[in-house]
Amino acid sequence: MPQSQRDVRNRIAAVKNIEKITRAMAMVAAARLRRSEQRIHALRPYASAIRRMTRRAAEAAGDVPKVPILQEHAEIRRVGLLLVAGDRGLAGAFNSNIVRAGIAVGRELEASGREVAYFASGRRVASSLTFRRLDPVDSFIGFTDRPSYADARRIAERLMAAYLDNEVDQVEVFYNGYVSAISQVVRRETLLPLQRATVLEGEVEEEPAGETPQRRVVPEYEPDAAAVLRRLVPDYVEISIYRALLESTASEHGARMTAMRQASDNATELIDTLTLQMNRARQAEITQEIMEVVAGAEGLR
């Protein structure tokens, strides 16, 4: 049934209101994205240095039975998966990409005979896992717009406790790595045990010109490498999670900005289409009225 001019006009008004909202959301996301980018650029060198320093101390210490967090479990029977995403939607496939990646790896692990324990950072992840009857062991929500180091410490303490209590034998984290405002990459990193930890780009030490591994300068640790590791390992886990949270936050703002801009563009196209439809309906009504007037005039002759 063809729509009347009033119906089309009401639809145009509704779409215009949606366009205003999506443009405002895109502007807010762009402003938050700039702040998130600054935080990431400030953190990345420090995080890389801490992670690199921790691995070097572990290599120097060799066998470190006095540091429980560094002890590898005899067998990997249960793997903890931390899925990091957002509390809110309207960000395209930002949240669903993490959920899909985490669940896919979880199914692979279960197919190989291992158990999986899910940990969720972000309300959307927690609700998606619960909807799929994969209830997370623990959830951390309410801070994804602007995560603090205290939030990372709380998550790190929970994961380290799970590892030390033999609740899990390995910890992996999934998050959206920030590349640019229009590009985010799902990253999977092994966090614990340290011996299996993923080495990120920028953390590989290059040998100076003319220096070989045998001639590399070996740092001295006071009182010893094991004591240094007791202090470094918690920082290593915390800073790794904090970096994942900041990368995820920037990726979320970038994804939301892109999604809202696309929604605004689609709304503009729909408004043009509806306006054309309304003009055609008006022309059809005018033509019909002219034909009725002409027909009436002919009947009076």
Write the layout of secondary structure elements.
Layout: H1 5-61, E1 78-84, H2 94-111, E2 115-121, H3 123-131, E3 138-140, H4 149-164, E4 170-180, E5 183-192, H5 225-300
Parallel strand pairs: 1-2, 1-4, 2-3
Antiparallel strand pairs: 4-5
Helix pairs in contact: 1-5, 2-3, 4-5
Overall body shape: elongated
**Span between termini:** 36 Å
Structural class: alpha/beta
> Quick one: CATH class?
Alpha Beta
Reading side by side through the largest sheet, how are the strands ordered?
A: 3-2-1-4-5
Supply the number of helical segments. Answer: 5
Largest sheet: 5 strands, mixed
Strand content: 5-15%
Overall number of domains = 1
The share of residues in helices is: 55-70%
CATH A-level architecture: 3-Layer(aba) Sandwich
Kindly state the number of beta strands: 5
What does this structure look like?
The protein is elongated and about 115 Å long. Helix 2 (94-111) packs across helix 3. It has a single domain, classed as Pyruvate Kinase, Chain: A, domain 1 (3-Layer(aba) Sandwich). The model is unreliable at 207-211 (pLDDT under 50). The protein is of the alpha/beta class. Helices cover 58% and strands 13% of the residues.
Q: What characteristics describe this protein?
A:
58% helix; 301 residues; Pyruvate Kinase, Chain: A, domain 1; alpha/beta; 5 helices; 5 strands; single chain
